[in-house]
TrEMBL record:
Gene3D superfamilies: 2.40.420.20, 2.40.50.100, Helix hairpin bin. This is Uncharacterized protein. One of its GO terms (cellular component) is efflux pump complex. Residues 108-162 form the Multidrug resistance protein MdtA-like alpha-helical hairpin domain. Residues 69-190 form the Multidrug resistance protein MdtA-like barrel-sandwich hybrid domain. Belongs to the membrane fusion protein (MFP) (TC 8.A.1) family. Coiled coil: none annotated. GO terms for molecular function: efflux transmembrane transporter activity. Pfam families: BSH_RND, HH_MFP_RND.
Length: 376
């Protein structure tokens, strides 16, 4: 027992000494605070994606034309007896506008009526005689034919009397009076021009390049360009695509495109007035693909696709993080490139793409837009 105690005492002393040394060493090391550094957000130069399908706003010289127009005529010859409407006067459908001197036509009607009555009487007698077998069938047939001829002549004479009066075919305004009272006119000679007042047309001329992209069916097009009348530049009117010619003007080689609008109730918008039609071309033209313009330096090939025939751009999402979008390069023009996204929904007009230095950026990297360029 006496031999063990010195050994235990020596072990205890050594253990305490070692513990003291470790404690002193631990206390002598400096304490380091663990502070997490914030990631550095890289500034990048960005550009706005622009459509090349014609979305630029274009202004066309425009002319007001009547939507509904009629050149009124008499259908028989004669001397004008009365003009019941003057130029600029508003008229209603069915209203009498002009009459001819109808004396001659009334006499012709009276004569035709007399011949018709005579023919009917002769036919009645011939019919009775034929039943009694007192006349040949040819005589009976002749009497019947005379009735038909007389009836036709009576109907023509009666119609000619009606043709001595011109009535308004629709509500409108007399735009132009082309004859005077007591003037002798020929059948189908224009005597006045009547225009409808519920709507007006707005006509422009476009090039064959624009014409080729207009839709064949305009019924489902809801876009409404803006028309500004030269004499009322503070007023803007919405118009709707109505129709277009399919043959060009021989002199200008341009095509006529017509828009329609309701007639303003508080102003006179008359045929022949001029103005400007402001059109967002991509909203009215048919396009087969979504083509965009971006800076040429925005196009690059990421390292993971090295050696492959692919091209990409980085666009920014709502959180300003990069999104890799595969695109097809259609053409390069100076500092801009026309591209088409492989997946159409992945790139839209007005979105931002990294304009330069894309090869230094990673996918899904947080960035800070530094300056913005236009794609074109």
């Amino acid at each position: 027992m006496e031999n063990i105690m010195p050994v235990l005492k020596s072990i205890l002393v050594n253990t305490l000494s070692l513990t003291t040394i470790v404690f002193l060493v631990a206390c002598s090391e400096p304490v380091v605070d663990l502070v997490q550094e914030e990631p550095v957000i890289r500034p990048v130069k960005v550009a706005e994606v622009i459509s090349t399908n014609g979305n630029s706003i274009k202004t066309f010289p425009a002319t007001v034309e009547p939507t509904q127009i009629a050149h009124l005529t008499f259908r028989v010859n004669g001397e004008i007896a009365q003009l019941y409407a003057l130029a600029g006067e508003t008229v209603k459908k069915g209203q009498v506008l002009a009459t001819l001197d109808d004396k001659d036509y009334l006499l012709q009607l009276k004569q035709a009526d007399a011949r018709y009555e005579l023919a009917k009487s002769q036919f009645v007698r011939a019919k009775q005689l034929f039943k009694e077998k007192l006349i040949a069938s040819s005589v009976f047939d002749e009497a019947k034919a005379q009735v038909d001829i007389a009836e036709a002549q009576f109907n023509v004479a009666q119609t000619n009397v009606k043709y001595t009066t011109v009535v308004a075919p629709f509500d409108g305004i007399v735009a132009q009076l082309q004859v005077e009272k007591y003037e002798f006119v020929q059948a189908k000679q224009p005597i006045m021009e009547l225009q409808g007042r519920k709507q007006v047309d707005i006509a422009i001329e476009v090039s064959e390049n624009v014409m080729a992209k207009l839709p064949k069916n305009t019924e489902n097009n809801t876009y409404q360009p803006t028309f500004i009348l030269d004499v009322k530049p503070d007023r803007k009117f919405k118009v709707k695509l109505k129709e277009h010619d399919i043959t060009p003007n021989m002199a200008t080689k341009s095509y006529k495109v017509v828009f329609a609008m309701n007639m303003p109730e508080d102003m006179n918008m008359l045929s022949g007035m001029t103005g400007s039609l402001i059109v967002e071309m991509d909203k009215i033209m048919e396009v087969e693909h979504s083509y965009f313009s971006v800076p040429v330096e925005s196009i690059f090939l990421p390292n993971q696709y090295a050696g492959q025939d692919k091209t990409f751009v980085y666009k920014l999402n709502a959180s300003n993080k990069t999104v890799l979008v595969e695109v097809e390069v259609i053409k390069i023009n100076n500092n801009s490139a026309t591209i088409k996204p492989k997946v159409e929904s992945e790139l839209m007009v007005s979105e931002l793409v990294i304009a330069t230095g894309s090869h230094l950026i990673a996918d899904d990297q947080q960035v800070k837009p530094w300056s913005r360029e236009r794609g074109l």
